[in-house]
Amino acid sequence: MRIKGLQVGPIATNCYIVEDETAKRAAIIDPGEDAGAILAAVTRDDPDMQVACILLTHGHYDHTSAIPDLREALPDVPVFIHRADFVDKDPRLFTLPPDLPNVHFYDEGDKVKVGSLLIEVVLHTPGHSAGSVVLKVDDVLFTGDTLFHGSCGRTDFPDGDYGQ
User: What digits encode the pLDDT tens for the residues 20-69?
Assistant: First the structure.
């Protein structure tokens, strides 16, 4: 397994690419912006690497803004998100179009296979947003905005709830 990290967009959102180097399959986690840089990172070490899926830790725009451009380059790649962050949301924070094709909903306990890697939704963590999740592959966690250094993600947005 190889993990590549990028900071994308004006607020430097963490985007990750998790690769099975043998199977040449990759997952993009939280593509906040700059699809070109993300796609270049996918093939930087192996020009034959193919994107198997896009996984979202939550649906805020700073974690999803590259999806329309990625969809132009990768029209058949599925997008995975928790249902609570996809339907009937505030369009200022949640910018994914409701008619986005090939969207799959996942929740705590679900697994997504990427080559031989198994990426699991280990926790549904509402608080920053109603559909925030933590993803785990091997011994690595991807927490999105559930955790920050020394704190948690903001809870003052619509759908945020500090108590959760």
Answer: 999 999 999 999 999 999 999 999 999 999 999 999 999 999 999 999 99
Q: Please, are residues 118 and 137 in contact by the beta-carbon 8 Å criterion?
A: yes
Each residue of 63-120: pLDDT tens digit? 999 999 999 999 999 999 999 999 778 888 888 988 899 999 999 999 999 999 999 9
Q: Which residue has the tokens 């790649």?
A: 77
Q: Is the dihedral of CA 37, 90, 151, 137 positive or negative?
A: negative
Token representation of residue 154: 């903001």
Q: Report the length, in residues, of the chain.
A: 164
C-alpha count within 13 angstroms, C-beta hemisphere, residue 46: 16
* Beta-strand runs (E) in 21-146: 25-29, 50-55, 79-81, 103-105, 111-114, 117-124, 133-137, 140-142
pTM: 0.94
- Taking Cα atoms as reference points, which of 122, 125, 113 lies closest to residue 160? 125
- Rounded Cα–Cα distance for residues 125 and 148 (Å): 14
Which residue, among 109, 110, 112, has the nearest Cα to 78 in the 3D structure? 112
